[in-house]
Specification:
The protein is mainly beta. The strands form nine sheets. Strands 1, 2, 6, 28, 29 and 30 form a six-stranded mixed sheet that branches. A four-stranded antiparallel sheet has the order 3-4-5-7, with no helix packed on it. It has two domains: 381 residues, Methylamine Dehydrogenase, Chain H; 56 residues. The radius of gyration is 27 Å and the shape is elongated. It is built from two helices and 34 strands. The termini are far apart. It holds the Pfam family WD40. One of its GO terms (molecular function) is actin filament binding. InterPro entries: Coronin, DUF1899, WD40/YVTN_repeat-like_dom_sf, WD40_repeat_CS, WD40_repeat_dom_sf, WD40_rpt.
Length: 475
């Protein structure tokens, strides 16, 4: 973005990024080397979860936030998946419940014990099967407890009601792989990006596509709802292969409200939006910079603030929820940066410089807490409610009283929209197919060796028989 002078009043024009000291980082973490375009990291006020390298399946670490420093190589893992873990997300209402999805076509719900893991966890409290190919994205509903979305490489989005442990809706409007999912603030709308280069706004309970944009000049990769402003922001690539962002009106996707080229690098741009401060953060995969902007309601809509620079490239970024921030330090956002080359997780705090040590109410408005506004049945019946807001003035630390109860299931079929999703056995994952291929090759070599040994023995017997026949007979 070209620099231009801007004369305007803003509380956030001097926001700066501050990386944590080495003692406050998480060191020695074998971060996954999977090239899937996800963050491989999830964080809440209690735990940090990171997808890790693991032999013989998929695994991720769950580390209490206060346990900084070097992580032991034999640190306990969550390792129940048979394929690589592709995405993890914490439940926004129950802080020890985390969802994961994998190449083994499953979605699993895990309950982390208080204080973290003491040994490897292999048994999930709930296993969800409905996709026929690997599952790349999981997303919790922002206002309703026990509603989870998953998007697979079978081009389908399944909506799971975890109270019954089954998918209750299927969104089947995508002709290719789904790249990103984003809910609006009350969870009544879902925005998706797809490999067919289209942006869609979908009513999730019916699966009906409300708006669709065919982006000829802007190939979309990621999308995020901008709070309750009825606008969307996408990141992608322009026709000249430069990284680009675009702003859209959710009720009219015929043309973007604005497009802005960022730079000529090739890494994916991850967008993060803070609805409380109206700030947008752009972090590039493979580079170490985080740009941040302020979103306005009038043109030019986007105002550049500053850039956090770092020489260490980032593979992904986790984001701390608002109630986990340090309000005494005027911290308005916190990233957890994955540095694969160093095996390091580095917290980066975005801070508003203020001299006063009192609570700064103007930069901490009422924000969504950890209480759900709806039950699954209410949301599925068509009710929408805004999230329940809380104040951070006294340091919001109230733990939710909700307890996750896994349903008992004996049903062997999963029927959604009249289709039995488990009628056919899902195809094996790529890793399973490779292991099966190598086992078959070993078996073929073993049989060939046995055959060769038998062939040698047959020749020996034939030679002995020939020699026996050539012995002259005694008269």
């Amino acid at each position: 973005m070209s620099w231009r002078p801007q004369y305007r009043s803003s509380k956030f024009r001097n926001v700066y990024g501050k990386a944590a000291s080495r003692e406050r980082c998480f060191d020695g973490v074998p971060i996954t080397r999977n090239v899937h375009d996800n963050h491989f990291c999830a964080v809440n006020a209690q735990f940090l979860a990171i997808v890790t390298e693991s032999a013989g399946g998929g695994a991720f670490l769950v580390i209490p936030l206060e346990q900084t420093g070097r992580i032991e190589p034999n640190y306990p893992k969550v390792c129940g998946h048979q394929g690589n873990v592709l995405d993890i997300k914490w439940n926004p209402f129950i802080e020890n419940i985390i969802a994961s999805c994998s190449e083994d076509t499953s979605v699993r719900i895990w309950e982390i014990p208080e204080g973290g893991l003491k040994r490897n966890m292999t048994e999930a409290v709930l296993e969800l099967y409905g996709h026929s190919r690997r599952v790349g994205i999981v997303e919790w509903h922002p206002t309703t407890n026990n509603i989870l979305l998953s998007a697979g490489y079978d081009y389908k989005v399944l909506i799971w009601n975890l109270e019954v442990g089954e998918p209750v809706k299927m969104i089947d409007c995508h002709p290719d792989v789904i790249l990103c999912l984003s809910f609006n603030s009350d969870g009544s709308l879902l925005a998706t990006t797809c490999k067919d280069k289209k942006l869609r706004v979908v009513e999730p309970r019916s699966g009906r596509v409300l708006q669709e944009a065919s982006c000829k000049n802007h190939r979309v990769n990621r999308v995020v709802f901008l709070g309750s402003t009825k606008r969307l922001l996408t990141t992608g690539v322009s026709r000249w292969n430069t990284r680009q962002i675009a702003l859209w009106d959710q009720e009219d996707l015929s043309m973007p409200l604005m497009e802005e080229e960022i730079d000529g690098l090739s890494g994916l741009l991850f967008p993060f939006y803070d609805a409380d401060t109206h700030m947008l953060y752009l972090a590039g995969k493979g580079d170490g910079n985080i740009r941040y902007y302020e979103i306005g309601s009038e043109k030019p809509y986007l105002s550049y603030l500053m850039e956090f620079r770092s020489p260490a490239p980032q593979k992904g970024l986790g984001v701390m929820p608002k109630h986990g921030l340090d309000v005494s330090a005027c911290e308005v956002f916190r990233f957890y940066k994955l540095i694969t080359l160093k095996g390091l997780i580095e917290p980066i705090s975005m801070i508003v410089p203020r001299r006063s040590e009192t609570y700064q109410e103007d930069i901490y408005p009422m924000t969504p807490g950890t209480e759900p506004a709806l039950t699954p049945d209410e949301w599925l019946s068509g009710i929408n409610r805004d999230p329940i807001l809380v104040s951070l003035k006294e340091g919001y630390k109230r733990n939710s009283k909700i307890v996750f109860k896994a349903p008992v299931r004996e049903k062997k079929s999963v029927v959604v929209n009249g289709i039995d999703l488990l009628e056919n056995v899902p195809p094996r994952t790529e890793n399973e197919l490779l292991r099966m291929f190598f086992r078959q090759q070993d078996e073929i070599r073993r049989l060939k060796d046995e055959l060769a040994q038998k062939d040698i023995r047959i020749r020996q017997l034939q030679l002995e028989l020939k020699n026996f026949r050539n012995i002259p007979k005694n008269n």
